[in-house]
């Protein structure tokens, strides 16, 4: 029987969940993307998980070029280098505010949803420079528009 090994990036986040895709396409990150995923988990996702004391479900983190094209991601998406994650949790407004007020990040986006809860949260982290950019996305005439908030 073959032993299955789980690669933990931090105590609550695995490489498998940071590379999951429902596209059926190849989505194995190269070493630089794994290093970026570790940083994202270490400095943003793990502290958020510990502070909230409830699970965070990753919808999308690392995306190969093929996966990103299939999901119609931005051509310069930070997901392509393992520096971004989209997630959901029990109270996303609380998670959003925790990240915004307590952590370093590059981008924090309240993705769609309502004024009470985002549909999901996009967060990115950069080892080089974190812009601390806080945005909200909305659909206007079928196009996604990002507006700076705070």
What does this structure look like?
The chain has helices at about 15-20, 30-50, 65-70, 90-100; strands at about 10, 15, 55-60, 85-90, 105-110, 120-125, 135-140, 145-150. By secondary structure, the protein is of the alpha+beta class. The chain has a single domain (about 10-150), classed as 2-Layer Sandwich (Muramoyl-pentapeptide Carboxypeptidase, domain 2). The strands form two sheets. A six-stranded mixed beta sheet has the order 3-4-6-5-7-8, covered by helices on one side. It has a two-stranded antiparallel ribbon with strand order 1-2. A hairpin with a 2-residue loop joins strand 7 (about 135-140) and strand 8 (about 145-150). Helix 2 (about 30-50) packs across helix 4 (about 90-100). The protein is globular, with a radius of gyration of 15 Å. The model has no long low-confidence stretch (mean pLDDT about 95).
Portion in beta strands: 25-35%
CATH class: Alpha Beta
Radius of gyration: 15 Å
Going by CATH, the architecture would be 2-Layer Sandwich
Number of DSSP E strands: 8
Give the ordered list of helices and strands.
EEHHEHEHEEEE
Estimate the global geometry from the Cα principal axes: globular
Features:
150 residues; alpha+beta; Muramoyl-pentapeptide Carboxypeptidase, domain 2; two-stranded antiparallel sheet; 8 strands
Secondary structure topology:
Layout: E1 8-10, E2 13-14, H1 15-18, H2 31-52, E3 56-60, H3 65-70, E4 84-89, H4 92-102, E5 107-111, E6 120-124, E7 133-140, E8 143-148
Parallel strand pairs: 5-7
Antiparallel strand pairs: 1-2, 3-4, 4-6, 5-6, 7-8
Helix pairs in contact: 2-4
């Amino acid at each position: 029987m073959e032993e299955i090994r789980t690669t933990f990036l931090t105590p609550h986040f695995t490489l498998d969940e940071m590379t999951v895709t429902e596209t059926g396409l190849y989505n194995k990150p190269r070493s630089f993307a794994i290093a970026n995923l570790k940083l994202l988990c270490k400095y943003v996702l793990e502290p958020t998980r510990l502070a909230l004391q409830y699970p965070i479900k990753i919808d999308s983190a690392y995306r190969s070029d093929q996966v990103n094209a299939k999901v119609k991601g931005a051509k310069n998406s930070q997901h392509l280098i393992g520096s971004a994650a989209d997630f959901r949790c029990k109270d996303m407004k609380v998670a959003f505010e925790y990240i915004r007020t307590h952590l370093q990040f590059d981008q924090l986006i309240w993705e769609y949803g309502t004024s009470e809860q985002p549909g999901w949260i996009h967060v990115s982290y950069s080892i080089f420079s974190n812009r601390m950019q806080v945005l909200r996305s909305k659909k206007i005439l079928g196009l996604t528009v990002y507006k700076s908030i705070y």
